[in-house]
Amino acid sequence: MTQLANKVEAKFASRGSSHFDILLALFCVVLILSNVGASKGVAFGPIITDGGFFLFPLAYIIGDVLSEVYGFRAARRAIITGFVTAALAALTFWVIVALPPADFYTNQDALASVLMPVPLIVLASLLGFLTGQTLNSWVLVRMKGRTRERHLWARLMGSTGVGEFADTLIFCSIAASVIGITTTGDFINYVLVGFLYKTAVEFLLLPVTTMVIRWVKKREPTYGMAA
Questions:
Q1: What number of CA atoms fall less than 13 Å from residue 204's CA on the CB side?
Q2: What is the reported pTM?
Q3: Which of 94, 96, 130, 141 is 20 to 30 Å from the Cα of 87, by its Cα?
Q4: How far apart are CA 121 and CA 113, in angstroms?
Q5: Positions in the chain whose pLDDT score sits under 70
Q6: What is the pLDDT of residues 160-190, one digit of tens each?
Q7: What per-residue string of b and e applies to 17-54 under the rule 16 or more CB within 10 Å gives b?
């Protein structure tokens, strides 16, 4: 009975608003661009990562805003929409490369080398993203059911730790060979750096995420409705 009462008391906003639409569009764009960037292996000395490292954490930050303000159902809708748009982008890249090049077009091999890894990267990203974002949203909303409007920082970091680890492990397990990682040591490096980096970014941007969440809550006339 206590858990049920806590769930009812948690506040959320309706997803039928312009704020949700803007956040959803930004969420999808960040995911697609991250997948394209992830097709490039990047090394900073002994640190191994990919070209999407600086952008992908934003997807989790936006996911936190969606989950905190609009609830699990709205966040799940955003996750599925992001999944579909990223898959559509991968299919589009495949078709573009498969189309016969004109005689005057001399960049077919370069185009294929850049875009062809993307479908496998997208598969890795989609599976990791779907699992990680769902866990992230579920944990955050469950914690909010217990704490309500208190301890926002704990919800954000707790959900991030769970979601980012699952996402990173699944993504790296598939994407490592695509970008040229073949040794166990480099793979462990890739997973740990990815997880620690993404978690650190969310921690450093926690004040910004908190400000955005509070800003959206104040401007959502429906905030306070059950999700």
A1: 8
A2: 0.76
A3: 141
A4: 13
A5: 1-9, 118, 225-227
A6: 889 889 988 998 888 788 778 888 888 888 8
A7: bebbeebbeebbbbbbbbbbbbbebeeeeeebbbbbbe
